[in-house]
Amino acid sequence: MRETGSLTNLKGTVRILGIETSCDETAVALVEAPDRILANLVDSQIAHHAPFGGVVPEVAARLHVERVPDLLATALRTAGVDWADLDTIAVTAGPGLATSLLVGASAAKALAIRLNRPLWAVHHLEGHVRSVFFGTGRHWLESGSAGLVLVVSGGHTILVQVGPEGRRLVGMTLDDAAGEALDKGARLLGLEYPGGPALEREAEQGDPWAVKFPSGQVSDRFNHWPETVRPELCFSFSGLKTALLYYLRDHPDANRADVAASYLHAVVEAIAARIERGIELLRPAYIGCGGGVARNRRLRERLGRVASSYGLPLLLAAPELCTDNAAMIVAAAADGWAEQFRLPERMPIRPSWAFGTPLDGG
Ligand code: KG4
Ligand code: ZN
Fold first, then answer.
1. I want to staple 350 with a disulfide (CB 3.0 to 4.6 A). Which of 94, 123, 223, 339 is the partner?
2. pLDDT, mean over the chain
3. Is the pTM of this model over 0.90?
């Protein structure tokens, strides 16, 4: 009952409804394959989680339950499409918070069964990878050349080689994700939640060279590399956070903007260094970057400089497609980066689904 393959092989216009509820954004999108966005709605729960300083899973799941039906109706109305005009449904099946994933998956299954349509299970990070190829970027997907795409989000930091043979994980973080490092750093600095945007604003007034933070070398002692992963393309951000903790303890009167700018600089430089190493090792035809942290202006500029120094095109996800959204989930399904369930009720969710592995692969 499970298969992969491109939806764009179907005849005529294919309209896909997508649902993404893996964490704290309730997102619904309606897309005409491969990636013409008819509606892309994201309902952020940030204000509800802010008093707790982080995402509270039970609160997230309850808000998804409350918001999904309304977003579905609004998406169809915005796009001027009837339920009967939907050709298929795509949904994030993992990784993410179990209770949050369950809400989107249950809604998607119910719709697919009611409308008698197949259901596509999408890996959340396949969506983030796919987000860099909207618009003109699509040319690179169709070109047949291999590229290198970085996903930097709150929960994940991975480097993926994208080519005609598929997507292969070549680098990953061994501890904290880049966004997590920014969120935790911002918290230590007394900035508001979510930390990434707050740190970006604070850093605007500061000197990035004021404090030298470590660049996040990866320990040789780590020995659980997935087969395709290259140790030199891996990230480690937990030491950076500890360095900030000690710095603030030892310098209680430090200028907060300077420390924020230096900390952000260290994260951006760690990312740029891995991308440069990846370019030298894998010789990609282009580089791309998506995920929530890819909204960061300094990172976007820095990657721009890396790309131009190697003479490579840079595909940056549009800011609204960097943070979690359902359009990227639908686009991934439209290109066959997903598993199809003709019996939707059989689709499992998988909170710790590893990138590049089958959905129920143990
Ligand atoms: O992709 P995303 O919406 O959710 C996950 O899949 O994790 O990413 C959220 C992350 C958070 O860590 C947030 O602090 C970070 O993206 N972020 C930023 C910016 N906007 C969001 N980090 C740095 N600069 C920003 N402007
Ligand atoms: Zn995400």
1. 94
2. 93
3. yes
